[in-house]
# Entry
Amino acid sequence: MGIEKYECTGEYMFSIPHNSDLLSSLKGAAEQLGIGAGVFTVIGALKKAVIQYYVQDRKKYHRIILETPLEIASGIGNIAVKDGETIVHCHVVLADKEGRCLGGHLGEGSIVFAGEAYIRALDPKIIRKYDDTTGLNLLSI
# Structure
């Protein structure tokens, strides 16, 4: 395991627009701020959500579409670059009105009711590379 020391180059807090796609908004913010490496948290609520579960033996994501209002009980992730493209990797725990939670890898199509994010930029850039063993694009430090 290679562990590298990264320096914080900036910290940012912002609101995520109502009716926007959460994953696209996080990616857009990272690109607008020029962040090629970072970590973030996000809280708020979604009008609907798409989460994904990685099926390890098939090396494929299974999509779960939740067509109901949900609280973002926890949202964490990182920002890296793959083939010149900004990659936002986010995991969420979502709670329904009864407090029941579901979680997974955030997918496109998760529509924001209200959202707030914190991004901490790191230096240097972090790259993602395909890993044959897992079938995932993992961090390559």
User: Anything to note?
Assistant: Helices lie at 22-32.
